[in-house]
Amino acid sequence: MVPGEIVYEKVSVTCRKQFPIDIQLHNCLDSMENQTTAGMCKCNNDALDRWDKFLNDTYKKLSTQLNAQQKKQLVEAEKAWINFKEKEIALINSIYAEADGSMWIPIRINNMMEITRQRAIAVDHLSENINEFK
Q1: What range defines the domain where residue 95 resides?
Q2: Residue 111: closest CA among 89, 80, 134, 78
């Protein structure tokens, strides 16, 4: 797999999609000036901000593609996801608060970023798939 490449499998069809945010994060982390804890944290925080914006934009796009019942379900799902995300971040912070060494700081931030990344990709996947049967 290429950095930033996501693989979706549907029955016997495989669809590969690269997300620019993943590529930017990979390039940021590979640059010499970011080979520090602060640099790695900045790369991950920047990626988190971009994933959050992508999630919001994709959520709005998906919302325009849905009927009234589906929109209601989307809002309910998003509220549940936000609750999950807050609890998951609290757990991540609790676990990594006990870790010794600065290397755990960017790992903690990356784990937090991954939560939003996964949701953004899932919403994007729904938005793309809905066009196949409408």
Answers
A1: 5-133
A2: 89
Instruction: Say whether 16 sits in a helix, a strand or coil.
Output: strand
Rounded to an integer, what distance in angstroms lies between the CA atom of residue 7 and that of residue 14? 7
Q: Where are the alpha helices (DSSP H) in 1-134?
A: 20-30, 37-64, 68-96, 104-130
- Total domains in the chain come to 1
Identify whether the C-beta of residue 121 lies closer than 8 Å to the C-beta of residue 6. Answer: yes
pLDDT digits (tens, 9 = 90+) for 74-112: 999 999 999 999 999 999 999 999 999 999 999 999 999
Mean pLDDT of the chain, nearest integer:
90
Q: Are 20 and 4 in contact (CB under 8 A)?
A: yes
